[in-house]
Amino acid sequence: MNGRDLMGLGGSVGAAVLAALVAATPVVAQAMNAKAAVDAAKAQGLVGEQADGFLGFVKPSSDTALRAAVEEINRGRAELYRKAAAENGVSPEAAGASAFTTVVQTKLKPGEFYKPAGGGWVRK
């Protein structure tokens, strides 16, 4: 099942996950720092969105703070995908894939990277 298939499930799982990501208020400064670090890395072409709904490294990085920020955000996304999956009767993997489709179509900025399933990194 791909992200487009999920759009017909009585509402968009990807849109629901995206709304949860946007609505989530970071409760600690560390979460805001992680988002800022990842946003800067995305703008620099170091980090991008992967087809599974998680962040990945476009270019290898030895920056431990950036690696920690990506891991922190990916842990949060994994939790959101599990919740969205349970609420919509799909797998967490399907929820992540649907979120990826939504992010690429609506939130990814020109110049940022994404990696479709089975493909290499693509600049938007």
Chart the SSEs and their pairings.
Elements: H1 3-6, H2 13-23, H3 29-43, E1 47-50, E2 55-57, H4 64-88, H5 92-106, E3 113-115, E4 122-123
Summarize the structure.
The chain has 124 residues and is of the alpha+beta class. Helices cover 56% and strands 10% of the residues.
Can you describe what's shown?
The chain is α+β, with helices and mostly antiparallel strands and 124 residues long. It has five helices and four strands. The protein has a four-stranded mixed beta sheet with strand order 2-1-3-4. It is globular and about 40 Å long. Residues 1-11 have low confidence and may be disordered.
Structural class: alpha+beta
Low-confidence stretches: 1-11
Question: Main sheet, how many strands, which sense, barrel?
Answer: 4 strands, mixed
Averaged pLDDT: 84
Label the overall shape. globular
Number of strands: 4
**Beta-strand content:** 5-15%
What topology, given as strand order, has the largest sheet?
2-1-3-4
SSE series: HHHEEHHEE
Radius of gyration: 14 Å
Helix segment tally: 5
What level of helicity do the residues show? 55-70%
Distance between the termini: 24 Å
The tally of structural domains comes to 1
